[in-house]
Amino acid sequence: MHLVDRLGGELPRSPVTVELDDIQATVLRYRPEPYYGTHVLLHIDDGRAGRELLRNLTPYVASAAEWWRAGEAWISVALSYTGMVALGLPQASLRSFPEAFRSGMAAQADKLRDYGPNDPKNWDAPFGTGQVHIGVSVFSDSEQAWRETVEMARHHYRRLAGITELSAQAFGAQPGDLNPLGYKDSIGQPAIEGSGVEPLPGQGRPIKAGEFILGYPGEGGAPLPMPHPDVLGRNGTFVGLRKYQSRVGTFNRFLREHTRTEQERELLAAKLVGRWRSGAPLTLAPSQDDPALGADPRRNNDFTYADDPHGHQVPLGSHMRRMNPRDTVMTQLADVNVHRIIRRSTTFGAPYDPDATSPEADEVPRGLYFLFLSAKAMETMEFLQQEWINNGNFMDLGDERDPNIGLQEEGATFTIPRAPVRRRIHGIQTFNVLRGGEYFFMPSLSALRWIGGLPAASTRL
Length: 461
Fold this sequence. Notes:
Layout: H1 3-7, E1 13-16, E2 35-44, H2 47-57, E3 73-79, H3 81-87, H4 91-95, H5 99-103, H6 109-112, E4 134-140, H7 143-158, E5 163-173, E6 195-197, H8 230-233, E7 237-246, H9 248-257, H10 262-273, H11 291-294, H12 319-323, E8 342-343, E9 346-349, E10 366-374, H13 377-389, E11 413-416, E12 423-426, E13 432-442, H14 445-452
Helix pairs in contact: 2-14
C-alpha cells in the first residue's frame, strides 16, 4: 500500500534539495502497513566475494526517489566497520570513520548504559562478536514479493564461497497487529528538509537534512564530518540496530498488580507510553482510547505539550515524551531537533498476548529490532541512553527511567502527575531486555558501487 493511500490523498510536495536517486530508500521510506521482512546478517570470509556480492546486490537496492510511494519490496544494505575492513577499504577511509563506530556498539556499553541483563556478555550470537559484516534487510507490503526478494538476495550470497549467513530474522505485522507489548508503533517520524514532501500535521518544521544524511548542512549550519573520499561518505548515514526481547509476562503482571479493572489497566498502559494502544495520543484523547484518531496519520501526531506543562495528561517520564519532548520546558535544556532519529523498528516472533502473565511468557521469542538512522547515530544514541532514557534529571524526575526501554533498578518508580496528589508507582520492571546490537554505515548507491569496484590491492593502502 502506498503511503499516499494510507494518508487518504496526495501528499503536498515541496522542493527536493537532496540527491534522492543516490540515497537508499530505507533512509526516507516509511515502513509499510501491513509489512513483511527479513534482516540478514552476513560474514565476509573473502573480501573479493564480499565485493562481488555488493556488485550483484546494488542494482536491487532501491533509491529514495519518490520515497513516499512505497513499492512492493525493497532491499537495504549496511556495513559494519569490521565488514568494511573485510571488504578491503583503504586504510585512510577506515580511519575517517568516528571512533565509536570503529569500536562497535558492544565496546560502547558503558556509554550506552548497557549493564546487568543488557550487558553484551548476555547478547545473542552473533551480536557484539565483530563477526557481523553486512546487514541486508528486505521490506515489503506483500508476502509474495517479500519471499521472492529474500530468495533473490539469498541466491546472490549463497553461491559465493566467501560469504557466510550468520542469522536471518523474519519480521512483520499485519493490519491491526500491535508491537510485542500491545501498542501501535512507529508514529511520529521527523520531517526532513529537502526530501520533497511537506511535513504532516504535528511534525513541526523540517529538520535540516544534514542531521540525518551526510553531505548536507545540519542544524548548526554546516555539514557534519563524513568518511572520505566524498563518494564514500556523501548521501550515506549511520544505523544503529538494537534487538530487544519483550518480557510480556512481566509487563502484564505489572499492569494487573497496579490496577483493579481493565479500563484502569489500559489507562496505565497509555500513561507509560503517552499513547493508547491504538496510537491515539493522550493529549488529544485524555480519558479514553480513540482508535479512529490513532489510525489517522494526519491527526495522531498533531499536538504539543503547551497545555500540559506538568504532565497531567502525558506524564513527563512517559516513553513518548522522553524520546521527543517537543515544547516541554526541561530542567536541563537541550535542542530537541539535534537529538531526533529516524526509526525503522520491526517486530518479530509471537504476537502480543494480553493474557500471558507467567515468567515463561518472558522467554517466548518475541520483541523488537529497534533500528535508528542518523548522521551521528552513535553520539545521539549515547545522549539518549545517558540523559533521556536512563536518567530523569532533564525532567526533574530524579532516578526515574524510561518505562518502556529503560533498564530499571530494584525499587524503581514511575510518576503519574495529577491533582491534588501525584501517583507514584513502585516496582516498575525492565519490560524490554537488550539481546544484541550493532552499528552500521548505510552507504549511498554510488558508495556501494565504489566499494564493489575496489581492487584487492586497496587493502594494503
